[in-house]
Write a structure and sequence with these properties.
There is one protein chain. By secondary structure, this protein is α+β, with helices and mostly antiparallel strands. 44% of the residues lie in helices and 18% in strands. The protein contains eight helices and eight strands; from the N terminus they run αβββαβαββαβααααβ. The chain has a six-stranded mixed β-sheet with strand order 1-2-8-3-6-5, sandwiched between helices. Strands 4-7 form a two-stranded antiparallel ribbon.
Length: 210
């Protein structure tokens, strides 16, 4: 989903889109950008939070990364907890979930007829995410596998991440993606509290393109 990444970077560093669709702010603080694409059969829904690895406190490197996994897979609203395979099934035309230095992005492409359901799910994850210990037990191994690939398992990816870490280190001995031993030690109560603190409408940007 390289186009979604490019779209995100444009929003982060330019703040406007070709054609200049005007962002607007809802009463609850959520900033919304709508981009109409005449004739489109599918819709991309993107939620961006200003929360990333740079917000990890000392000793909890990887908290934002793990929370990204939990945000996507824990129960929310009427949607039960799900694994990564269920996300792949939900978004066969593409998805992107990643944690950056100071942002977290969650995006998926759905048929236009499913837009209302997708927006309901996005709203539920902002206000009614129910993280359980079973979610941690499922997602911590996935994060650890990603970290192995990021820093050693996949040489081309490891090279990129090692250079990024050297050029743009995270303060307080943090690491992009997290330190494995610190990810393993993250507790349910802290993750739930962190979601409550950062997953707020006034800290989010919703983009709908289609």
């Amino acid at each position: 989903m390289s186009w979604l990444r490019g779209f995100l970077v444009f929003l982060l560093f330019v703040g406007r889109l070709p054609g200049d669709p005007e962002p607007y702010r809802l009463d609850n603080g959520l900033t919304v950008v709508l981009e109409n694409v005449p004739g489109a059969q599918d819709v991309a829904v993107l939620v961006l939070y200003r929360f990333g690895g740079a917000h990890d406190p000392p000793g909890a490197s990887g908290r934002a990364h793990l929370l990204e996994h939990l945000y996507c897979t824990a129960a929310a609203g009427e949607t039960p907890a799900r694994d990564f395979a269920a996300i792949q099934t939900r978004y066969p035309k593409g998805y992107n979930q990643q944690t950056g230095f100071d942002y977290t992005v969650l995006a998926g492409v759905v048929p236009a007829a499913q837009l209302e359901a997708e927006l309901r799910d996005a709203a539920a994850r902002m206000r009614d995410l129910r993280i359980a210990q079973s979610d941690l037990d499922r997602e911590v191994p996935r994060v650890l596998t990603e970290l192995e690939n990021m820093y050693g398992g996949l040489p081309h990816l490891a090279g990129t991440n090692l250079v990024r870490q050297a050029l743009h280190p995270i303060a307080r001995d943090g690491r992009h993606g997290g330190h494995p031993e610190q990810v393993k030690a993250l507790a349910l109560a802290d993750l739930t509290r962190t979601w409550s603190n950062y997953s707020r409408c006034n800290n989010a940007l919703l983009v709908v393109v289609g």
